[in-house]
Design brief:
Layout lengths: L1 E12 L2 E10 L4 E7 L3 E5 L3 H7 L3 E8 L5 E6 L6 H10 L4 E2 L5 H9 L4 E5 L2 E4 L2 E6 L2 E4 L8 E8 L6 E8 L2 E7 L8 E3 L2 H15 L3 E3 L3 H15 L14 E3 L9 E3 L4 E2 L2 H7 L9 H9 L10 H11 L1 H21 L2 H12 L9 H15 L27 E11 L2 H8 L7 E4 L6 E3 L4 E4 L4 H18 L3 H18 L9 H24 L4 E5 L2 E5 L5 H27 L7 E12 L13 E7 L2 E7 L10 H15 L5 H12 L9 E4 L13 H6 L9 E7 L2 E4 L9 H17 L6 H9 L7
Helix pairs in contact: 7-9, 8-9, 10-14, 11-14, 12-13, 12-15, 13-14, 17-20, 18-20, 18-21
């Protein structure tokens, strides 16, 4: 029987460690497997005699080596919790341990070759809350797409969160609201006391038996309140698939995610799912996500939510019930329609990482690399933190040539860093050192040297690309995207000093090769007679010299093909390797703006805008400009988009600018003046400087979010919850509109001030 692992842990049974895997079977039943397994780690064989004098443990001779080709011995330990103590004792005496930091359950799955889906063979029993319990079954890897049960919950409370009013539960085939009341309501069950309501909630949750519990801010608020209520009413907080108490770890700042440990289930916040899968929103309020993803709204938008909910509960409880279940439904539908959960599931099945940790890039690489190393007879180092003396060099960004252009071609490398790793065999296991004098090696531009063989990380990337191609044939776009996220994370992981594979020179080899290749590409393009006006990490922007955009597209494809032939030959000749670099013609900007740095003639970097044709329709694209930056107002974004649209279509702009400035000053765009800025540390920690959003934050009695929304008034920044003074329109005109206009007007020898000065010389009545 095939199954998907939802939750992994271990239990000590009769003084022996057993791995426990909870999950969902292909027939829809829940399962638990319990397997005896002995913990272990490795030390060098040369250290065995000394180690046995320090600690008493079993050991086995092995053929395994570390990355320095030193023979290793397996050290067998009785219980997982003993390993940290023994490791510390050995390391205090100068003895290095290997793979002693791998989680016990992860070690078990690696040794079995299992990721997230398994084949289970063996007898089973039926126990409370679990359909099938297998004792010491045979477990092997399998491959199937599981159907998981998701339950969304949402609560409503009094304004001080001291009194619980309602609990809404929503899933694919269940919908209900529990309310503390002595009256009856539609689509709800009433309870005269809180204890009975909570007991019923517990019963329903076990009956529904979800694999995943979700909601919006579900851990920090809903479950936190429910937990407190369980404790007040002396009810065991047992909502998982065994009889252990569930745990919450609530973080009191905005910079760490709170965690919920429900044995046998996963609790995953809808907000986290969107962020993990790079679904970007202006903010992550439920209202915003529902509007963008579902084209729906909450039933009620409150101005003073706490007080208004108190009032609804007292005089219009049916409205509160409807509002409550709608919020639970919206959270469920958002993660369903956005495919956020399905994408997380794909990432989990590719790496073997549990659903609540799929965004853990370092753990994802471990899960793929360590089994491959073991197959080759190698054991990996422990993770350890190293201070970076110097930062990793970034991608090459060429000084641009400012101007307004027509038919600019964009050619970029597909998955540049993963392709560099494959092409040049960059890997911790193939790394030889700096400036090594040997034959048949690969030397990176930073003098890092690698063996010219087939290392582990290039093989992992190759395997992922094979899976991605299969997914393409199956039209499984989620799986393809999951693989893209994973492969593109490898460079960042290798450059992270907490990664067990971190090496400053290896990480720099990747970025140095990237710089070398993007410059070489520009040189080859210019040899063909075309000017490169900008290069950025993996892209080149080329003047096509053509007036016809369709002819420009043909040129883009020709350049792509010619350059790929060039690289096939270049890599073979200079490195004796197969080329895995692939240059791709991406698009043609029919109109393109490359601005200069404001008030200077120097070129801007990572800032441009262009007009492209997609499916016969024009579309404005921005990179790095105000229209893409979250800390600029909607006023600035509206102004920039409309101004560029006029510039790109050769329309007159003076009257547009005058009118826009006038309307701004008269309050027409007051709804677009809000700044939104995230706090990156505690408000009290801003000592040397006090940015505007911190000044606004300090005017709030309660800080309800790490994103501050504020308006600039004649008395400075004020939070939108407490605006007391008149809007400072001059600020918005001079600090938001003027810089945007001048960055564009410079190419026509005009200035914002000159245009506005002309306005002031005329009567405003003409507008």
């Amino acid at each position: 029987m095939k199954g998907y692992i939802i939750y992994q842990t271990y239990r000590i049974i009769n003084e022996k460690a057993h791995v426990c895997l909870f999950g969902r079977l292909e027939n829809g039943e829940s399962f638990l497997t319990v397997n005896y397994y002995k913990p272990y780690f490795f030390i060098k064989q040369d250290d065995l005699e000394t180690s046995l004098k320090i600690e008493d443990f079993e050991h086995e001779e092995t053929e395994f080596m570390n990355f320095k080709n030193e023979r290793l011995v397996k050290m067998l330990i009785n219980l997982p919790q003993e390993i940290p103590k023994i490791r510390h004792s050995l390391e205090e005496n100068g003895i290095e341990t290997f793979e002693s930091d791998i989680r016990f359950t992860t070690r078990f799955l690696i040794d079995k070759g299992i990721k997230s889906t398994i084949e289970i063979e063996g007898d089973y029993t039926i126990e409370e809350n679990i359909n099938r319990v297998y004792k010491d079954p045979d477990l092997t890897p399998s491959n199937f797409n599981p159907e998981l049960k998701v339950l969304s919950i949402d609560i409503e409370t009094s304004s001080d969160a001291k009194e619980l009013y309602t609990i809404a539960l929503y899933s694919k085939d269940y919908k209900n609201v529990l309310i503390k009341s002595d009256k009856s309501y539609k689509n709800a069950v009433s309870f005269k006391d809180e204890e009975k309501l909570l007991e019923t909630f517990k019963e329903i949750l076990h009956e529904q038996d979800p694999d995943i519990i979700t909601g919006w801010n579900v851990i920090n608020f809903d479950l936190k309140v429910i937990y407190e209520k369980f404790r007040e009413n002396e009810i065991d907080f047992v909502l998982g698939r065994d009889n252990l108490m569930c745990k919450l770890r609530i973080e009191n700042d905005f910079f760490k995610d709170s965690k919920a440990d429900f044995p046998g289930r996963q609790v995953i916040d809808g907000i986290s799912l969107l962020k993990w899968n790079f679904i970007k929103l202006e903010d992550y309020k439920l209202e915003t996500a529902a509007k963008v993803i579902l084209k729906e709204k909450k039933l009620i938008n409150f101005e003073n939510k706490g007080d208004e909910i108190d009032n609804l509960y007292k005089i219009a409880a049916q409205k509160l019930i409807d509002y409550n279940i709608k919020d639970a439904e919206l959270a469920y539908l958002i993660i369903e329609k956005s495919n956020a959960l399905k994408l997380a599931l794909q990432r989990s099945m590719i790496t073997g990482i549990p659903l609540d940790r799929v965004n853990a890039s370092i753990a994802s690489l471990d899960s793929l690399y360590i089994p491959k190393a073991r197959q080759r007879g190698y054991v990996c180092y422990n993770s350890k933190f190293e201070l970076k003396e110097k930062g990793i060099i970034g991608g090459y960004v060429m000084d641009s040539v400012p101007g307004i252009y027509e038919n600019i071609l964009v050619l970029d490398f597909k998955s540049l860093y993963p392709s560099i790793i494959r092409t040049f065999n960059i890997d911790p296991i193939s790394y030889l050192g700096q400036d090594v004098k040997e034959k048949n090696i690969i030397k990176a531009p930073n003098n890092a040297c690698f063996r010219n063989d087939d290392a582990i990380l290039p093989e992992i990337i190759k395997d992922l690309l094979t899976i991605r191609e299969e997914a393409r044939k199956e039209k499984n776009e989620l799986k393809r995207y999951a693989i893209k996220i994973l492969a593109n994370s490898f460079f960042g992981v290798l450059a992270n000093p907490t990664c067990r594979f971190y090496n400053y020179n290896i990480a720099n080899a990747i970025t140095h090769f990237g710089q070398f290749l993007i410059k070489l590409t520009a040189e080859e393009i210019e040899k063909k007679g075309y000017k490169v006006i900008y290069s950025d990490t993996d892209s080149n922007f080329v003047i096509s010299k053509l007036k016809d955009s369709s002819k420009a597209e043909e040129l883009g494809i020709k350049l792509q093909n010619d350059l790929n032939i060039f690289y096939n030959n270049y890599i073979k000749k200079n490195y004796n390797r197969q080329n895995n670099l692939e240059l791709e013609y991406e698009k043609c900007f029919v109109k393109f703006l490359m601005p200069s740095i404001r008030a200077k003639t120097m070129a801007a970097k990572k800032r441009y805008a262009g007009l492209v044709i997609k499916d016969g329709k024009e579309e404005l694209e921005f990179t790095g400009l105000e229209s893409k930056r979250s800390d600029w107002t909607q006023l600035a974004k509206k102004f920039q988009c409309e101004l560029l649209d006029k510039i790109f279509h050769n329309k007159e702009v003076n009257e547009f600018i005058k009118r826009f400035v006038y309307d701004t000053g008269k309050g027409k765009y007051d709804g677009l003046l809000i700044y939104k800025k995230s706090i990156r540390k505690n408000v009290a920690d801003y000592i040397k400087t006090t940015p505007p959003h911190i000044k606004a934050a300090r005017k709030l009695k309660i800080l309800g979010s790490n994103k501050i929304e504020y308006i600039i008034t004649e008395d400075g920044p004020e939070p939108i919850q407490n605006v007391r003074h008149k809007i400072d329109y001059d600020h918005y005109i001079n600090k938001q509109l003027k810089p945007i206009a001048d960055a564009i007007l410079v190419f026509s020898n005009k200035t914002f001030d000159k245009i506005i000065k002309e306005t002031k010389q005329h009567s405003l009545s003409e507008f």
